[in-house]
Amino acid sequence: MPQEIERKFLVTRDDYKKLGRGVLYRQGYLNSNANRIVRIRIVENKAMITIKGISVGAARPEFEYPIPVEDAEVLLSLCERPLLEKYRYKIDHEGMVWEIDEFLGENDGLVVAELELEAEDQPYQKPDWVGEEVTYDPRYYNSALIRHPYSEWRNG
Predict the structure, then answer these.
(1) 29 included as an active-site residue
(2) How many CB atoms within 10 Å of residue 45?
(3) How confident is the model at residue 156 (pLDDT cuts 50, 70, 90)?
(4) Whole-prediction pTM value?
(5) What CATH topology corresponds to 3-154?
(6) What is the pLDDT of residues 23-39, one digit of tens each?
(7) Please, are residues 5 and 117 in contact by the beta-carbon 8 Å criterion?
């Protein structure tokens, strides 16, 4: 079964911007239930539908398939609100690719780094601009950010 093993961290500095270019991601959730997430995503001229199961530790089942961009645009109109928009930077560090998400809109100000691993205990080296780990804090799941945007955390 396809599986995603992902670690999430807060980003403390914007040094990563010198190392790569940010690409706009637009995504929405047809279902954001923690037991089964159905996401639609458009990145440049490509679109995907992704189904994720419940997390067990840092791992969860994940199935992802390409779909026509035109279909994705229609599906985004059916998604829960707000949609998520973010710039993603893919940065190589010590032979591993870190994905840094700078959120926009209601989640502006939140910057999270993600690292996908082959095993939960796989060793890795954090760049010096990566801070506290938030892998096990459900507030940082993209699907949770539509229900409780980052702007609400800071305002109360």
Answers:
(1) yes
(2) 6
(3) low
(4) 0.90
(5) Hypothetical Protein Pfu-838710-001 (2.40.320)
(6) 999 999 999 887 899 99
(7) yes
